[in-house]
Amino acid sequence: DLALNERDFLESRSSRDASGRTPSTEEKEELRLEKKLREICALKRRQVAGEVLDKLQAEKVAKRGELFREVAELKLRRAEKELMRIFKRHSKAFQDAFWELEWQALYADDSTASSGSTQAPFGIFDETGCDGPVTVTQAATKAESRAPRWVGVPLHVQVRKAEVAAFAIEVLEGLVRLGWAAPGEAVGDLGSGKGGFGFGGTGKKVSDGVFASYGQSFGPGDIIHCEAEREEGRLRIGFAKNNEPLGVAFDAEDVWTGPLAGVVCGKGFKVQIVSAENEALGPGLPKETGLEGFIEYDQPQMAIAERDYRVGPEDSLLLWAGETLHVSSDDGEGWLFGFFLDPEDPDDGGWFPADCVRFLDEAVQAQESAFEARATASQGAVSERAQQSNCKSPLPPTQQGVATAGYPTEWEQAPLAAESATDEGPVGGLLEWLQKLSLQKYSAAATVWCTDMGAVSLQEVEESWEDFAEALALKPLERKRLAKAVQG
């Protein structure tokens, strides 16, 4: 089979010779290698037929694959050059064909719709369900109404239980509201009932007739993405404006048995579909990260900056290593929203990369508070011993804040060394070492690992730091910090 494939591969020679063009240096080299490869292929066929080859012939056959790759690379380079020449000669035709396909796929209207199609494609407006005077194009990708009152049109996009679905529209004219509605809910006044969930151009979300501020206002020229997810008894709906996520707008108990349909309504509006899709959620299928990953904390979480973040967009929160802050939201895509002062004042906050900070949960804060207390007590003991030995050098003032608790100075560490050797298991000084690396929350697991591995000194732990990190399941930034400390 390999010999047959190689013969097919070499068929292009005769067609190239027939062109009458003088071959270039690269083409001459290709012809030379082709001839050599043909001879080797003939030897291979003789060998397959049962002939015994001499040593030189066997060596040639053994190098056949290497020669084949060399010829293939030459042919590929020649094909790339030829394709570029063809593209340049016919670039206008290529551009026209590309834009024609793109236009038909995304913005097809009456002029490009197939006259023979009677069934509406998936992901477009459902003209039969309009509430009020709404005009839908034949391809059902655009909808408009000149009515001065609220009217609406449903979409063929539906989301059922254990599914996620989304659609996006471009606002061309007027005031628009979009979202999802359960069966029997008003389409013309989306959000007036319990089963309606809408987001309007004024920057308000509405459900069960209750309006609330959300996201940003939008209008003509904006593209609004709307996504719904029904999983584990919850309905989550979120929106995005011009590819910028606005977060979860609705997170409600999913009490509906039937599908929820996408809806667009408005006054004197005109919109067109940009995209639409749905996907089943189940074992083995990836979940949508936009809504599932977005977290709004009921109580802002304390965190400490582990590295600087001094350059970012206008809505960023700039950080300096060691600062403490409140984190109120996680967009699920690597960005957090936090505050320095008042968590209730949105003007005081901004977005920053999630890997810039480390969360301080209750357990960690308790450990750090305990360490501060021990450090203070030890400082008093050292001060008393210093006075007894007529030491006149005053101790440094106690450093306040979380950063000091996470990174104790040398004068704080010394009094704890003797105590650590007695209460930290087989390795003396383990707690202080973990404190230096801000890994104190792993102290229990580290002690267990040292006992299991028979480690009796920090040097042994450092020599096996990779196994140590693996056993403690350190996060990437924590592992990097450990490696830097061990390797110097």
TrEMBL record:
Does Coiled coil count among this protein's keywords? no
Which GO cellular component terms, listed alphabetically, does the Swiss-Prot or TrEMBL entry include? nucleus
Recorded GO molecular functions are:
RNA binding
Record's SUPFAM superfamilies? Concanavalin A-like lectins/glucanases (SSF49899), SH3-domain (SSF50044)
- Renumbered to this chain, region (Disordered) spans 1-30, 382-403
Q: Provide a GO biological process annotation.
A: alternative mRNA splicing, via spliceosome
Q: Matching InterPro entries, A to Z?
A: B30.2/SPRY_sf (IPR043136), ConA-like_dom_sf (IPR013320), SH3-like_dom_sf (IPR036028), SH3_domain (IPR001452), SPRY_dom (IPR003877)
| Record's keyword annotation contains Hydrolase | no
- Domain annotation SH3: ranges: 298-362
User: Compositional bias (Polar residues) spans?
Assistant: 382-402
Q: Give UniProt keywords alphabetically.
A: SH3 domain
> Entry's PANTHER family?
B30.2_SPRY DOMAIN-CONTAINING PROTEIN-RELATED, HETEROGENEOUS NUCLEAR RIBONUCLEOPROTEIN U FAMILY MEMBER
This one is known as SH3 domain-containing protein
Its source organism is Polarella glacialis (Dinoflagellate)
